[in-house]
Amino acid sequence: MTDFFQDLKPLRFDPDGADLAFRHYDPDETLMGKRMEDHLRFAVAYWHSFAWPGGDPFGGQTFQRPWFGDTMELARLKADVAFEMFDLLGVPFFCWHDADIRPEGDSFAESRRNLEEMTDYLMDKMEGRKTKLLWGTANLFSHRRFMAGAATNPDPEIFAWSAATVKLCMDATRKMGGQNYVLWGGREGYETLLNTDLKRERTQAGRFLQMAVEYKHKIGFEGAILIEPKPQEPTKHQYDYDVATVYGFLKDFGLENEVKVNVEQGHAILAGHSFEHELALAAALDIFGSIDMNRNDYQSGWDTDQFPNNVPEVALAYYEVLKAGGFTTGGTNFDARLRRQSLDPVDLVAAHAGAMDVCARGLKAAAAMLEDGTLETMRAERYAGWDAPEGKALLESDLESIAASVEADGIDPQPRSGRQEILESIVNRFV
């Protein structure tokens, strides 16, 4: 045991009790025939919780953590503290980048050895605990070598380094029993078209992903391969802009049946969409996999990665998740970080506890809306004409036949109300 969290005790469901308790998250509560914990599948992000120093674009480190540093001893201390927090929260999963869990070596071989050693150390920490690995991924964006991207880099040797790193991370994820492997193209984009060959970079990215899928099958990794869409920041344009863009990319390289998406709330907003839009589209395209649950500050205009606190937004997101059949290998990863003024260890636990309560409250609202059925009934009524024989026949017809029929029938079609305000009021009954 470390003394980082001092006298904090494991949190419990206690709606009327102490401040540091779950008010809505009861892991054993049953909703739609499934335990709440099994619906939500919470995961803690290793990077924001234990590797992030508290900086922002205008200022550096504000956090003072006893494990900050580039030694294996400190990496092990970081893991000790991490699992103590997982125990306090009772979360079933966590997620990592390789750079979060091991120090950078002086060579690729040394970094590999560090990762392999920390993989074994984390597996020892997992032994006898409920917290398992939701997914692993490679950090191909922080080091200066990745300033022009990884898979899309103009230099072949950096492409090779990146591919080798992904191989190591996939090995570690499989060894640790991870249920997914994520490819996040943090810098897979461009700053200016003046020095960018779009076609070449897109081809490189496609082949890189194909290699990852090929390796998955070679090693017998049974988890899902996920791409996390992101529109911008830090680059001007990203090749994985949003769910629709990713789907087009997957289709182009024959991977639409091999790869799914990990959708983040903050990235959806940066792309000009709502979170529920991206989730609904992913489900419609059959590529829904997992979610990163966070939020942006809508006055800031950049990816602030804050813990969720808006129950109506979260409810609409989980409504789409439940409609899609819920998670299989995916889950709810808190890709969220403390504010840089939240310095104390208790802040880290309280932030996750509050976010878990917000998600639980949103999930309960979403389940109640689905079980009520009013929204789906009104949606079905709006499109009922397409289920009638005439509607079905229309899609099998042609322009000439349709034009002749419209003129012969002499119909003057009139619009019908979309009832948006009524629908919004229905949602408000539940949230």
From TrEMBL:
Domain of life: Bacteria
Binding site for Mg(2+) 2: E264, H267, D303, D305
Subcellular location: Cytoplasm
Entry GO terms, CC: cytoplasm
GO biological process: D-xylose metabolic process
PROSITE patterns (alphabetical): XYLOSE_ISOMERASE
Keywords: Carbohydrate metabolism, Cytoplasm, Isomerase, Magnesium, Metal-binding, Xylose metabolism
Catalysed reaction, written as an equation: alpha-D-xylose = alpha-D-xylulofuranose
Class in the EC hierarchy, top level: isomerase
Listed EC numbers: 5.3.1.5
Subunit structure as annotated in this protein's UniProt entry: Homotetramer.
Membership in a protein family: Belongs to the xylose isomerase family.
NCBIfam families: PRK05474.1 (NF003998), xylose_isom_A (TIGR02630)
Protein name: Xylose isomerase
Organism per entry: Notoacmeibacter marinus
